Amino acid sequence: MSNVEVRRVGQHDFVATNDRGASVRVGRKGAEGAFTPVELLLAAAAGCAAVTAETLITRRVDGDLVARADDVRSADGHSLTSVPVALDYDVSTLDDTERAALETAIRRAIDQLCTVTRTLKSAPPTPLTLPT
């Protein structure tokens, strides 16, 4: 089980730290050098897909692997209606059959193993605890 702690270090300035010592700045939209909470969610979705698919892709093709997740908001702007994730890598050396087989393997792996995107699809409860 992993824990992430987010600690206030200044006005609208926070640092998220995991139990392995990694950290990332978190702030409001426009805060220099910081991710917004929504951007962290997008990074988690894209990162999970990339980490899950990496071995499948790099066994078959060379070059860069880039994952992107987009922020698709509701009309009021206060919730996400979708978190589309795209993987980009060079398939020019693959024939149609190889491309199709790779796509099937990647989709299956992400659907079965990517904790973040699986969690987003199921929308689990997020209880809030406050001091008493």
From TrEMBL:
Stored InterPro entries: KH_dom-like_a/b, OsmC/Ohr_fam, OsmC/Ohrsf
Domain of life: Bacteria
Protein's recorded name: Putative OsmC-like protein
